[in-house]
Design a protein that fits this description.
The chain is built from nine helices and eleven strands. Helix 3 runs parallel beside helix 4. The chain is an alpha/beta fold. The protein folds into two domains: 80 residues, no CATH class; 131 residues, Rossmann fold. The strands form three sheets. It has a five-stranded parallel sheet with strand order 8-7-9-10-11. Strands 3-4-6-5 form a four-stranded mixed sheet, with helices on both faces. The protein is 38% helix and 18% strand.
Length: 240
């Protein structure tokens, strides 16, 4: 007799058989992800050759991806995307390259605030990803707790946001401060900035995880991509 669990698993496998991907031998490119999740697959450049990056990008574009984003992209990786799509844009400091061919109509507002200028690469990874997924993004940089009065110009944008991203290293106290000011969900991104005892962002991660502000959720260290994805989904749902 087939159990209920086995029936459910069988049904799931049948659904997955219809899920599209292109097998390049070195990569199985998920060409169905945008239709399935509303966000196309991104290309993590680290560990890939420029030729592999170019090939993956061409498949995604040929299959109609609304955007293609390459993260952790050095100069060679960014050049690889430009070969696949000459109109590609890039942000050298954030180690990004992207093509935007059919971005969803903008809906919802994401406000990003950072503790220091050194958090910029993570901030702009989050910004670009959220914009490519169809949200308005406002950025306020260098507003950390060492000079908390610098947060004042951001307060209005923080309070009108549908979702907030806080990027901070060191003690990462900014996440708790912002979490106590706004009604929107706050996504904390611990940054790897800071001297030795910051442990490459581990101190910031633990600080954010133990925030006394109840509305703060946390992603991985330096994960601007993940924060931008989640924030865009929240913001678009809130504004629908």
């Amino acid at each position: 007799m087939v159990s209920g669990v086995e029936e459910s698993l069988t049904a799931l496998l049948q659904q997955l058989r219809g899920t599209g991907f292109t097998d390049l031998g070195f990569a199985r490119v998920d060409t169905d992800r945008e239709a399935r999740q509303g966000a196309p697959e991104a290309i993590m450049a680290e560990g890939k050759t420029p030729e592999e990056i170019e090939a993956i990008a061409r498949v995604l574009l040929d299959e109609g991806a609304g955007s293609v984003l390459v993260t952790r992209a050095d100069a060679d990786a960014r050049a690889a995307l430009r070969r696949a799509a000459p109109e590609a844009e890039e942000h050298e400091r954030a180690r990004l390259a992207w093509v935007a061919r059919s971005v969803p109509e903008s809906r919802g507002l994401v406000t990003i605030v950072s503790g220091g200028t050194g958090d910029g690469p993570v901030v702009h990874e989050a910004r670009v990803r959220a914009q490519l997924l169809g949200t308005e993004v406002v950025v306020h940089e260098d507003a950390g707790v060492a000079g908390l009065h610098r947060l004042a110009p951001a307060v209005e944008d923080l309070r009108r946001a549908d979702c907030v991203i806080v990027v901070a290293g060191w003690d990462a106290a900014l996440a708790s401060v912002v979490g106590g000011l706004v009604a929107a969900p706050v996504i904390g991104v611990p940054a790897s900035t800071g001297y030795g005892a910051a442990f490459g962002g581990v101190s910031a991660l633990l600080s954010m995880l133990t925030s006394c502000a109840a509305g703060v959720a946390v992603v991985n260290i330096d994960d601007g991509f993940g924060a931008g994805t989640i924030a865009a989904r929240i913001a678009r749902a809130a504004a629908s």
